[in-house]
Amino acid sequence: MTIETQADVTGETVPVVVPRTRRPGWRGLLRSGKLRAGLGIVLFFALAGLIGPLFVHDPERVSDDQLFGPSAAHLLGTTNTGQDVFKLLVVSSRGSLTVGLVTGVLATLISIVIGVVGAYVGNRWDEGLSLFSNVFLVLPGLPLVILVTDYLGSRGAAMIAVIIALTSWAGPARVLRAQTMSVRGRDYVDAARVSGEPAWRIIGFEVLPNLLPIIAAQFIFAVLGGILTEAALAFLGLGGSGSWGTMLYFAQNAQALSLGAWWWFVPPGLCIAVLGAGLALINFSLDELINPRLRVPRDKANRPATAGTP
Q1: What CA–CA distance (Å, rounded) separates 44 from 262?
Q2: What keywords does the record list, in alphabetical order (predicted)?
């Protein structure tokens, strides 16, 4: 609780005890069911991508079976060349997660440098960087990624992630610029500037901590965008080898849908959808932390409805 002063009927100021309003922070965020579910899904796929290939034999090893459905020998069936779909699914998870993680890190770093630094420095730096981000903002994302990937001719997961990141940072940079311009004029930032602290320290210790929820949400969104974009590229034949999108590409080329081989294309598509749902749940939880209007107080959520209460 806090103590404030208030004038009474005689005009004299008397102390008044005012209860302190609880601000939901990161501890309150961890109580969110959406966040726990999202973290569980993402952690499951992360462990599958990290340690799963260590316990799975070479999926490229062709067996004697030819396009058989799920069985005790092959949990998710086989492809038209006899490859085990379950082994392919586990090994391909590492490629998709690598592209998403690298894309998220690079896109977030670029948006911080251009959005936050440019907005804090201001003047011509802000105008130039803002114009630069506006140019990338109006460019079509997926067609540009297709053209650059086809021109470079690289199919590595790292290079594809870099290309996706270089074409997807403009939107987050604009959001961070707007938030930084509202933060840089606050009292604590002015106090740090008057005390003689360097600009890099003010940005790192005064500005960025107030932008962490937004940066975290943008990072998760960039990871999800990287995974979906890589899957689209791989489905078009422009992606790298060893990802869920590559499995969909080969299934489409072999006409798995026409042959009724649902066990070939449903598992990778379902993994992309479930992982995207997990990342979306985490993003929704961060949105509740950023926007107070999306939060429902725990006492109101648990309070039973009474007659006559609107």
Answers
A1: 23
A2: Cell membrane, Membrane, Transmembrane, Transmembrane helix, Transport
Alpha helices by DSSP H, 52-84 = none
Q: Where are the beta strands (DSSP E) in the chain?
A: 2-7, 13-18
- The residue behind tokens 């080898």 is 241
pTM score of the predicted model: 0.78
Could you tell me if residue 129 is inside a domain? yes
Tell me the pairing of strands 2-7 and 13-18. antiparallel
Q: Tokens 């460019």 correspond to what residue?
A: 139
**What are 80-101's pLDDT values in tens digits?**
887 888 888 888 888 889 889 9
What tokens were used for 43? Answer: 């952690």
Give residues with Cβ within 8 angstroms of 92, minimum separation 6: 242, 243, 244, 246, 247, 268
Range(s) of the domain holding residue 223: 32-292
Using CA atoms, how far apart are residues 242 and 92, in angstroms rounded to an integer?
5
- Cα 79 from Cα 252, distance rounded (Å): 12
- Kindly state whether residue 1 falls inside one of the protein's structural domains: no
Task: Determine which helix (DSSP H) or strand (DSSP E) holds 157, and give its type and residue range.
Answer: helix 157-166
Q: Give residue-wise pLDDT tens across range 278-302.
A: 988 888 887 777 665 655 554 454 5
CA 40-30-297 angle, 5° bins: 130
State how far the Cα of 71 lies from the Cα of 283, in Å rounded to an integer: 37
Three-state SS at 84: strand
Tell me, yes or no, whether 12 lies in a domain. no
